[in-house]
Amino acid sequence: xxxxxxxxxxxxxxxxxxxxxxxxxxxxxxxxxxxxxxxxxxxxxxxxxxxxxxxxxxxxxxxxxxxxxxxxxxxxxxxxxxxxxxxxxxxxxxxxxxxxxxxxxxxxxxxxxxxxxxxxxxxxxxxxxxxxxxxxxxxxxxxxxxxxxxxxxxxxxxxxxxxxxxxxxxxxxxxxxxxxxxxxxxxxxxxxxxxxxxxxxxxxxxxxxxxxxxxxxxxxxxxxxxxxxxxxxxxxxxxxxxxxxxxxxxxxxxxxxxxxxxxxxxxxxxxxxxxxxxxxxxxxxxxxxxxxxxxxxxxxxxxxxxxxxxxxxxxxxxxxxxxxxxxxxxxxxxxxxxxxxxxxxxxxxxxxxxxxxxxxxxxxxxxxxxxxxxxxxxxxxxxxxxxxxxxxxxxxxxxxxxxxxxxxxxxxxxxxxxxxxxxxxxxxxxxxxxxxxxxxxxxxxxxxxxxxxxxx
Length: 456
Ligand SMILES: [Fe+2]
Known about the structure:
The protein is of the alpha/beta class. The chain has 19 helices and 13 strands. The structure holds fe (ii) ion (FE2). One of its GO terms (molecular function) is iron ion binding.
């Protein structure tokens, strides 16, 4: 039985790409363990931790009154002090209730008394693994670290490379877009204001075209909270048919309402950089406007997508929490988990649908800022898209290959967006990381329960 459990554990962690050692491997001589660690993609396996002599262990214990007490007694017996303890319901033993305990102690894995601890623990636990911290990537921990993030756009003009799009051939448009991007690239997090853009008549014309049509869609297809947020934007942030709102005004309002702010960016960020910003309650937003010849389509996120699609929901504290949860989970998480978080983000924040009073409604920005996507996902046509119930594991594991330049072939509908938020929270909690993070709003820093070596 124990062997089967180890096999399952190794299999699941291998799938996740996480390097854990099974109990039998952990009991091997240090040289063998070092060989396993030597497979790490990093040349210096623990370079991100100051405490090189710290070891992390995951112990699975039955949900019994004295189970934890017995396990902790083993550490007492060998005089090993724990520096961190955290528990999560175990996925390993679905039928019989059990918990995974993440324990850190200030001794190297090679220490002889740790071998004794491991040997004793193996007799009382359903499973245990040694967590190798070598896969931890460095990540921003200060609000001001986002200055570096905001300047790393994927590549200049990356979003308008579609040769059949008018923006690709229009030199004047590209010059204008670059000018607005440059304003964002110069922006620093401690600047007094986000630069205001004086939009041209052509740009305002594109906005006008979109604004009135979007509002019609919202009355029938957007969740209640989106319409409430939009009403606030119209009242306090300059949203109107004739005016493209300024990011500065939106940001000031959001700061007072939910603590979120906007950070202007000059183009698309990498998935990791983008998600990392959300941890700090910062939403990266472009400021340029799509090409006037194709006002209903843009090959890249423009200010219309950002402020019409995303911003109204950020006025709702609980919805904003959903974005921050994904952001916090993205900090230092392994690449394969990052792409799963990106997929969850895609099918919720971008293309999320949910039920509201028995009707299907949209809360995803990609639907609410696109005429084609909106019509498609609410179409009664028999060729219309497929709809599936919202399931985090299913989405994250099996739907990473979504299209990003055409309408979605399928959507996931949750009971409500709060239900999606709850399930994503549980998914984020289940991501194995050898440390925990939280955001301190007062100091605008990420607090990590292990010291990170070096600077971001
Ligand atoms: Fe978006």
